[in-house]
Amino acid sequence: MNKIVSAKEAISSIRDGHTVASVGVIGWVVPDMVLNALGERFESTAAPRDLTFYFPCGTGDAVGIRGMDHVAKEGLMKRIVSGSYINPVNPATGERPALMRLIQENRVEAYSWPIGASMHWLREVARKSPGYITRIGLDTYADPKNGGGKFTERCKDDLVQRIALNGEDVLFYPTWPLDVAIIRASSADEFGNLSFEDEPLVSAGLALALAAKASNGKVIAQVRRVLKRGERLATEARLPGVFVDQIVVDQTMMMSTDTPYDASYLHSRNVGTSRMPTIPFGPDKVIARRAALEVRKHELSIFGFGAAADVPLVMQESGAFDPVHAPNDYWFTTEHGSYGGVVMNGWQFSANMHPDALIDGLSQFDVIDGGLCEFAALAFAEYDAAGTVNVSKFGKSNPGAGGFIDIAHNAKRLVFTGTFTTGGLEVNFENGEMRIVKEGKISKFVSTAQSITYSVADGVRRGQTAKIITERAVFDALPEGLVLSEIAPGVDLKKDILDLMAFQPHAIADPLPLMDAALFVPETKECVTQTSGGARQEIEDSPLL
């Protein structure tokens, strides 16, 4: 039996009403050729119709690697369930992704689940259990009492239930079958045994395949090359060929966005194939420098997408990762299973450069939900008077939570990073001081957040510690409210902080310490006027930066 087929042949058996699931993490491990073929089939034949798409994580960047944007077509897509959504502005066209337009115009049923749930749910499908049960996400936007993760008015079905179990409220995600799983690997032999030697992430690939096969469904694997059976060790094959129905070969598939291939994402040693990026001096770098002071040696630390991902890069630039004297002092990871090395930002987020080890996505959320990542740095879009932080839905952005809820719920120490305001913020730095040249249009400190991603106040009551770090102020979160604990030199307390908050801090430290002046000194020692976000606004264009 020859399993090697074209992408067009692979998707030809998908029928009206099927549920199609795919792996992918931004640009990483995206089976883009197969997803593109499905979108092209619909364009040319108007079939298949009314599909449900299941993406455990945001798949593709909607720019260079389009991913789920290939299938974001009204009529083809009836429903989408995803752990995160991508919302960049295309730098060439200025347009938002097609999927985001469908969501904003209420032309598709769109559900957003925390990635911990979207990953672990697959295990329950694979073992044919009634569903996934978790405490994580209670009282957040994923909780039915706050919308149940529904992102459009078209969503009528309750895919998440709040139930009582042994006298305790929990969230229950009922299972349903997957008809097709589209996954990606590096190599396959003729029988379909898959290996991932060129992929710095495995994500949900293995789990998707097992869930589909348990559902009597089909598994399509996109690979870069085909090997002869027996050409490699059995220990190198991560998914047995008995679980793979068809193989699509794409010899030119990208490793990730803007990265055809880079061995630095596969080797712990410096293989000299790329240079570490640097963060331009400005508000983002100031925030990252201050947040870096909270990072401890020999503590497993996890970093989220957005401003928080700058922290390891400024530490790298400062020489914190001395490969001779301190090769293993800092233990870094992300929600996607890359361990060691340096967490990257922007489109390269998710896979670490120079990692020590990799685990799959479901195992990584076992680590996260088990509380093994004791320190977490996460971005924030809004923080409100009730101690709620929001990154999931604000303005025209609907990114969902990603791994945020699981990470925030289970870490012992939390740091939330981001600029104080967004939308045109410009600041001036001189002699270790900061001045606001042009204030951002939107303050992130609001009376009521637009979406409940996580209750910091509840977490602190459970024993967590939390800080909110901006370019001009640092706050400590207490159950009673925020305490303003540091202020940037050169900033006016009333005009630049208190007047811009929709609520007032519970307390202000007296005396109020200044943030270290060294945080505000550019490398060139000259007066610099900078805006927040810069070129990265092309990626997110959101208050997360």
Shape: globular
Q: CATH homologous superfamily of the domain at 7-114 and 177-249?
A: Glutaconate Coenzyme A-transferase
Q: What is the CATH-assigned architecture of the domain at 7-114 and 177-249?
A: 3-Layer(aba) Sandwich
- Name the poorly predicted regions: 525-529, 533-545
Spatial strand order of the main sheet: 15-14-18-21-28-29-30-31
- What can be said about the biggest beta sheet? 8 strands, mixed
Number of strands: 32
Instruction: Using the CA coordinates, give the radius of gyration.
Output: 23 Å
- As for the CATH topology of the domain at 7-114 and 177-249, it is Glutaconate Coenzyme A-transferase
Reading off the top of the CATH hierarchy, the class of the domain at 7-114 and 177-249 is best stated as Alpha Beta
The residue fraction in helices comes out at 10-25%
| SS element count, helices | 11
Give the CA-CA distance, first to last residue.
Answer: 51 Å
Mean pLDDT: 93
What would you call the structural class? alpha/beta
Tell me the fraction of residues in β-strands, as a range: 15-25%
